[in-house]
Design goal:
With 263 residues, the chain is mainly α. A two-stranded antiparallel sheet has the order 1-2. The protein has helices at residues 5-33, 37-41, 61-67, 72-102, 113-125, 132-136, 138-157, 165-168, 184-187, 201-227, 244-249, 254-260; strands at 48-50, 56-58. Helix 1 (5-33) runs antiparallel to helix 4, helix 1 (5-33) runs antiparallel to helix 10 and helix 5 (113-125) runs antiparallel to helix 7. Strand 1 and strand 2 (56-58) form a beta hairpin. The relative contact order is 0.15. The protein contains 12 helices and 2 strands, in the order H-H-E-E-H-H-H-H-H-H-H-H-H-H.
Length: 263
């Protein structure tokens, strides 16, 4: 039996994209630490930035530069990287469901990302392909994945400030371990206290690792359960090294295309 090509394509795109998020994050942190902020300032607009096709807004160049210095830059970039991680993973889950339905394996409709995570957990629990330790910690890794969803909601819906829903919206079913931000205790019990979400690079890496690990288990489980392929996906057997240009730009010819076209 051969793996379903469409399902594998969804997996590989998501897998590459998640590794791309991590590579991009680590590079930008390294670049910021070695940057000459005074020189960066000369390349920024002087007093205003365009925000629509009709409007500009005045801004403080120095304030922007200051925000992108240590330690603030790492916190800002980690938020962006976390959003990218959840977006990639949610898109992959959605495509898995779509392809399975198209191929005669209809799945229960998943209207929200939270429901898709619960679906992915149930599918992953049925898998027996892969490392035993990886399979055993699925309740923990899915708890981390769900935590990323809720932290993402804080960032995009609440300016990255803790609220009461962050804890109460956690998936608490079928054995998934609830994972909470370590600083939640400083907010809990005082809904009037303004407490911003802080994400370090180490904390972000924990989330990316969980998403990639779950993605592999889910993909292996789908390929075996629906298409009869018992052998798990292997980077070595697929002869698939990390190819940063392909991961981040989609094509090794992108430089040629960029030079030949106006964007």
């Amino acid at each position: 039996m051969k793996r379903d090509a469409d399902i594998q394509r969804v997996f590989e795109v998501a897998d590459d994209s998640l590794q791309g998020v991590l590579g991009y994050h680590l590079y930008t942190i390294a670049a910021q630490k070695s940057a000459d902020t005074e020189k960066i300032s000369t390349y920024l607009p002087d007093d205003r930035i365009p925000i629509t096709f009709d409007w500009d807004r005045f801004y403080s160049k120095q304030e922007l530069v200051d925000l992108f210095t240590s330690p603030f830059f790492e916190l800002v970039q980690a938020r962006i990287s976390l959003i990218a991680t959840t977006n990639v993973f949610d898109a992959a889950l959605n495509r898995f469901v779509e392809h399975l339905s198209e191929k005669g394996f209809p799945q229960k409709p998943q209207q929200f990302y939270k429901q898709r995570i619960e679906w992915a957990y149930q599918e992953s629990l049925k898998s027996d392909v892969g490392n035993k330790d990886t399979l055993a910690r699925l309740p923990k890794t899915f708890g981390i994945v769900d935590n990323a969803r809720r932290l993402r909601n804080l960032i995009v819906h609440n300016h990255g400030l803790f609220d009461q829903k962050y804890a109460t919206d956690a998936i608490d079913s079928n054995g998934i371990e609830i994972d909470l931000h370590p600083s939640l205790g400083e907010f809990a019990g005082n809904s009037k206290k303004v407490f911003p979400l802080m994400i370090t690079t180490d904390y972000l890496i924990r989330f990316v690792k969980a998403h990639i690990e779950v993605l592999h288990v889910l993909h292996n489980g789908i390929q075996k359960r629906y298409f009869g392929v018992a052998e798990g996906y292997s980077y070595e057997k697929e002869r698939k090294p990390i190819e940063w240009r392909s991961i981040l730009l989609g094509s090794s010819k992108v430089r040629i295309l960029f030079q030949g076209h106006k964007i």
